[in-house]
Amino acid sequence: MQAVTKWLDRPADYLPVWRAMRDYTEERASDSEDQIWLCEHSPVYTLGQAGLETHLLKANGIPVVHCDRGGQITYHGPGQLVAYVLLDLRRARLYVREYVSLLEEAVIGTLREFGVRGACRKPGAPGVYVPDPQGGAELAKIAALGIKVRNGHAYHGLSINVDMDLAPFLGINPCGYEGLRTVDMASCGVRADLAEVGASVARRVTPRISGEGLCG
């Protein structure tokens, strides 16, 4: 069954979108279609299910939402692509670890397509990283992952920093890592259209979750 991709209204408030994907997951039947929701959120900090408030350093008036995904704290805002994948893992014959790897590979492939060099995984730290464009010794984070699995169905997903105000990341320990540098495609020298980045991610995720193999 082919997954359906749709764009949500932009910018999208976080709470209604979270509730909608949670409701869809709770109500879906064995023949319900998998869906990929692409969006750009209004500014918000989200804390995962086990998220520690100590990683929120200064909110600066940005709303904070405690949600049910995995992971610690992150920021969503204008200029960032968010892709929520509502997936029947059992029907796709994917284990959670394979699924996380699939999402990371889709991000790496998308970044490569647009000319961002050196995108990679970092052992023990989910997400996608790139060499620090300012020459720092440590890798910088450009994409975050956080999922929730309920009764074999996954929701939440990934975010890629495309061209955004990165200052709000200074108000948190991104993903629970003190001093982790966060960058976007623009700071790596790549200007890209958010819709085109979203289309690239969906094009890479859809074949795998539909059982057709991974697009390069």
Characteristics:
alpha+beta, BirA Bifunctional Protein, domain 2, 7-stranded mixed β-sheet, 3-stranded mixed β-sheet, 4 helices, 10 strands, 24% helix
> Helices and strands: which structural class?
alpha+beta
Radius of gyration: 16 Å
Biggest sheet overview: 7 strands, mixed
Largest beta sheet: what is the strand line-up?
A: 1-2-6-10-9-8-7
- CATH hierarchy, class: Alpha Beta
State the total count of DSSP E strands.
10
Mean of residue pLDDT values: 95
Low-confidence stretches: none
Structural domain tally? 1
Number of helices: 4
- Measured between the Cα atoms of the first and last residue, the distance is 21 Å
Helix/strand order, N-terminal first = EHEEEEEHHEEEEH
- Assign the CATH architecture: 2-Layer Sandwich
Proportion of helical residues: 10-25%
The fold-level CATH name is BirA Bifunctional Protein, domain 2
At the fourth level of CATH, the homologous superfamily is Bira Bifunctional Protein, Domain 2
Tell me what portion of residues adopts beta-strand conformation: 25-35%
Shape descriptor: globular
Main location: cytoplasm
Subcellular location: Cytoplasm
Domain BPL/LPL catalytic: 30-213
Binding site for substrate: 69-76, 144-146, 157-159
What does this structure look like?
- The protein is an alpha+beta fold and 216 residues long.
- It has one domain (4-206): BirA Bifunctional Protein, domain 2.
- The protein is 24% helix and 28% strand.
- The protein is built from four helices and ten strands, in the order E-H-E-E-E-E-E-H-H-E-E-E-E-H.
- It has helices at 14-27, 89-92, 96-113, 194-209, and strands spanning 4-7, 35-39, 44-47, 64-66, 73-76, 80-88, 120-122, 125-131, 139-150, 153-161.
- A seven-stranded mixed sheet has the order 1-2-6-10-9-8-7, with helices on both faces. The protein has a three-stranded mixed sheet with strand order 4-3-5, with no helix packed on it.
- Helix 3 (96-113) packs antiparallel against helix 4 (194-209).
- The protein starts with a strand and ends in a 7-residue tail after the last helix.
- The mean pLDDT is 95.
- Its EC number is 2.3.1.181.
